[in-house]
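Batch 3, record 17
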Amino acid sequence: MNYLLHILIIISIYMILSSSLNILVGYTGLLSICHAAFYGIGAYVSVLLTTKLQVNFFAALAIAMLSASLLSLIVSTPSLRLKGDFFVLATLAFQIIGFDIFNNWTPLTEGPYGIAGIPSPKLLGLSFNSPAKYLLLSSAVASLCFLITRILLLSPFGLALKAVREDEIAAQALGKNVTKIKIKAFAIASGLAAVAGVLFAHYLSFIDPTSFTVEESIFILSIVLIGGPGNMKGPIVGTVLLIIIPEILRFLEIPNSVAPNVRQMIYGALLVIFMYFRPQGIAGVYVFE
Amino acid sequence: MLGIISLLVIFFSYYMTIAHTKFGKSLKAISSNPLLAEVVGINLKRYRIGIFALGSLLAGIGAMLSALDVGIAPNIGFPVVLIAVVSVVIGGTGVFEGAFLGGILIGILQALSVWQFSARWQSTLVFLLLIVFLIFKPEGILGFGRRLEEVKA
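Prediction for the assembled complex:
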């Protein structure tokens, strides 16, 4: 039972991550591979606040969101001057620098040892300390995030994002400040990724930098690309699929030493197959170039 | 020593191929305009497969040399590829000598960062340099500037 709850919690966390990355990849057309860095920033900020300064969980959540959004400016303002492959490279560079900071700033982040003993969140005397209670919290937060993204993407701002994706010059000609729109999209996506990071950290009660690597960024990106970018259903389908497929492997009696590698192979093969036969993803409406 | 000798041999033969044969010229044509290259009779598919094979061959030689030096593990490839991408961008994309120069520069930078700070901040410095280059000189040291409309969006 706890196993099922665990999977559901992980799915809800990845749903936040993938739908926030979808704002960038699917709606704005920016292929970013530094999402795991913001996921990590959220986790670390909230963990440091709650363990070292005993800040309330929800206050820490808000501060983590804000700080990730602010830090996204460091990434977005310089890299948005770049186009195509160079933009991807710049986000990759920021992802690696982010990981290095988590891993090497030992006085603050404990480096590769990780931080343990992260308290469970409390609300009105109710402590979310069992998987069932935590699922309530994480699914509530995930649905809230989904709602926010939905409202945002259906609003004029969402249409402006789509306009930027389809034709930047035309959007500019119609009076949209393209750079500003992209920076805003970046900030929103990073803030939501930080929420996922906070949920992840307080669920596992232990974090270390290996959860926020380049591979993690690529995994989130493959969720979005397989699920279908540019569509609100896409990331949800992708998350459920890519989280559940590896779990099936557990029941196929594959030895533990082989299972992670088989998982990687499945992800890789899925990506290649999708790029060949259905480049818009399962539920997507938009072919990413 | 083996590394330096094989570097020189490979660099020389590679340079001769790229700069002085029809093959090298066709590659340049393909990279600047694939459609036009096909029109003048270059078999695009064959060249793409060929260049992938050639790239893998060179990567294999590089891997062999590094395996003799530091040994192998299944996951050594990814960081090396990232560093290689950085050195290509810094040296200059589309210029043959660029990758060579970039590789040497990155090597020196890595050694200096170990000497001055610590080995832990090595990749941070390398990627900071990449960002600086991407912003201020995206064509690399030896690369020539492209016109705005040539850059693919």
